[in-house]
Write a structure and sequence with these properties.
The complex is a heterodimer of chains A (276) and B (332). The radius of gyration of chain A is 23 Å and the shape is globular. With 276 residues, chain A is mainly α. Chain A has 14 helices and no strands. In chain A, α2 packs across α14, α7 runs parallel beside α12 and α10 runs antiparallel to α11. By secondary structure, chain B is an alpha/beta fold. Chain B is 50% helix and 16% strand. In chain B, strands 4, 5, 6, 7, 8, 10 and 11 form a seven-stranded mixed sheet that branches. Chain B starts with a helix and ends with a helix. Classes of the chains: A mainly alpha (276), B alpha/beta (332). Chains A and B meet through α13 of A and α3 and α16 of B.
Chain lengths: 276, 332
């Protein structure tokens, strides 16, 4: 058995051992620790904690802002990727590099900068607030921060797919009489949809867990603009380690379920795209 | 190549021998949010004193943040030699949960282990456009109040306590006090996690008509940012805030820094330490310096946490644990 393995894939054993050890150290052990610690609460305590109004409200805020931000990123991320791939822009490389900036910038810095801009005495806030559209210290502010943080995920997943699209397909379609809209909806969109969904999933998952940038702009009012990660921090700061891990577990399960749904959806669209 | 190696080895040996005979001491002081400026100056003074007294060089590292957060870091293993936190309760938490500090710590230094005290005042925008004079003005419609989250900030707990006691005395009962603080927190648009965060929100971001603030923090804001921008308003009644200091016993035993850590805190009560506290707008605890700096502080009636609530343990249980009064006022 071992011999066949060795001949088939050289270095199979060390590779497998390495993968298991590495993943255990980085992912599995911390996750099991989280699970174990959260079991310090019985089912009824889990239920009481997770259905308390503040926790529910925080989940509502976190989910709605991350969903909205991810959706906005899908639309405008696609647009950005499109422009970067298809149009000859001056300083294209500079723009391209700018896309990665939210990855590179410490999230706290992003949060502080966004707050400074959107606060009522900031560059943009001074015009937005009098119009009855306050951004900083409201859920809108959270969404803005999450759009900033999530933007590169969509652009960077869609961009390579757009680049690899065979122009021959589009040319063939239009020479067969397809309108521009038809070319987009029938040829381009099905091809990039899986990548778009991946970008959406990544941006969304990142948004749900985001703490650094959100905390400065959120205002952090209970029931209004308190996000789940803040609630976890608050629990920790009150020495309620078990409560914190319970909320953490709930968040993990929820994110996992949502990502699973998106993955299934993605597999489905990919099959459909392949079938076309 | 060989020469380089020898040189490196020599450097290593010299370095190592330096460590062996070193009189370099390191201290980590884990403190709360607004004490940055105070300890920056105090550390220089103490290092000088310690050098003169023992010949040793002491370097003090500082860590600042919301008081509750800082206490948790120490519990989780941050190797603080001394803690100088916003309230006794946070040091009690370290003593209870990690046993790093002996339970009798409060009695080990004079004045309840509070070398300096402070109180809670209001910082308003120049000219006091909303005419804020007293706690009652904070619950008025249209007044926007900035204060941190009492779940995470020591200063915010003092703020809450002061508002509560005022309302209880004025309106005659707990139920009325609860209504009062509920109304007050409805006027709060931003709950930061620490006192310095709230000051930033009020001062830099322009949010709010009034900042409920440590007295020293309010003075500092006025001094740093210009008296033409802010005014300090002292309510007639407020709380005597006693930030506490303690040596972290288990950590100093491990670091072999018992003597210097103890001296570091004791020196806070010396003439030099008290003077630095006063200069940084903390109220010095020793009578001589309290008198010297009395004129710089507003006169107001101060109640103590012990007289009003029987100490921090009771107050925390009553107001700030999960499901207690602070949570309830948001759920009404």
């Amino acid at each position: 058995m071992a011999q066949t393995n060795r001949s088939l894939i050289p270095g199979f054993r060390p590779a497998l051992t390495f993968t298991i050890v590495y993943l255990s150290l980085l992912v599995l052990i911390p996750l099991s620790a989280l699970l174990l610690k959260s079991l310090g609460y019985g089912p009824s305590q889990w239920f009481t904690l997770l259905t308390s109004p503040r926790v529910l409200a925080a989940f509502r805020v976190s989910l709605s802002t991350s969903l909205l931000a991810a959706a906005i990123n899908v639309v405008f991320g696609l647009l950005l990727a499109w422009v970067l791939v298809r149009y000859p822009l001056p300083f294209k490389r500079v723009f391209d590099a700018l896309i990665d900036l939210p990855f590179a910038l410490p999230t706290a810095v992003a949060g502080i900068v966004l707050t400074a801009i959107y606060a009522r005495n900031g560059w943009l806030g001074q015009y937005l607030e009098p119009l009855g559209f306050p951004v900083a210290f409201t859920p809108t502010g959270i969404t803005v921060a999450l759009i900033f943080i999530g933007m590169p995920f969509v652009v960077r997943t869609v961009q390579p797919v757009l680049q690899d699209l065979d122009p021959a397909e589009e040319e063939a379609a239009s020479s067969l009489g397809a309108s521009r809209l038809q070319v987009f909806t029938k040829i381009i969109f099905p091809n990039i949809l899986p990548a778009l969904l991946t970008g959406f999933a990544l941006a969304f998952a990142r948004g749900i867990g985001e703490y650094g940038s959100v905390i400065f702009i959120a205002g952090n009012r209970p029931l209004v603009s308190e996000v789940v990660p803040l609630l976890i921090m608050t629990k920790l700061e009150q020495y309620d380690y078990v409560g914190a891990t319970v909320i953490g577990m709930a968040m993990l399960i929820l994110s996992f379920a949502l990502l699973l749904i998106i993955n299934v959806l993605q597999a489905w669209t990919r099959r459909r795209a392949g079938a076309l | 190549m060989k020469l380089k190696f020898h040189a490196a080895l020599a450097a290593l040996l010299i370095g190592a021998s330096g460590v062996l005979h070193a009189a370099d001491v390191k201290l980590l002081n884990v403190s709360y949010d607004p004490t940055r400026e105070l300890y920056e100056q105090y550390n220089v003074a103490f290092a000088k004193y310690w050098k003169e007294k023992t010949g040793d060089n002491v370097t003090i590292q500082q860590s600042h943040g919301g008081s509750g957060k800082q206490a948790r870091s120490v519990i989780d293993g941050l190797g603080a030699d001394v803690v100088t936190l916003a309230l006794a309760d946070d040091i009690d938490a370290i003593a209870d949960k990690s046993k790093l500090i002996a339970p009798d710590w409060l009695a080990r230094l004079p004045k309840n282990s509070s070398p300096y005290t402070s109180t809670i005042v209001f910082l308003v925008r120049k000219g006091n456009p909303k005419n804020i004079k007293d706690w009652d003005d904070l619950v008025r419609k249209g007044v926007s109040v900035v204060t941190p989250n009492p779940k995470t900030s020591g200063g915010a707990r003092w703020n809450f306590i002061a508002a509560w006691e005022y309302a209880k005395r004025k309106y005659g009962g707990e139920a009325q006090a609860k209504d009062f603080v509920a109304k007050l927190y409805q006027n709060v648009p931003v709950l930061d996690s620490g006192a310095r965060g709230s000051t930033t929100t009020f001062v830099e971001r322009g949010v709010g008509d009034v900042l409920i603030s440590w007295e020293n923090e309010a003075f500092l804001a006025v001094k740093e940012l210009g008296p033409d921008k802010f005014d300090i308003v002292a309510p007639p009644l407020s709380v005597l805030a006693e930030p506490s200091v303690a040596v972290v016993d288990k950590n100093v035993q491990r670091h072999k820094t018992e003597a210097v850590a103890k001296a570091y805190l004791e020196y806070l009560y010396s003439d030099v330490g008290q003077d630095i506290a006063g200069k940084n707008y903390y109220r010095p605890s020793e009578e001589k310096f309290a008198a010297k700096y009395a004129s710089q502080f507003p006169k107001l009636e101060l109640f103590t946490i012990d007289s009003a609530f029987g100490g921090w343990k009771n107050a925390t249980q009553k107001f700030f644990v999960d499901g207690a009064i602070f949570d309830q006022i948001y759920l009404k």
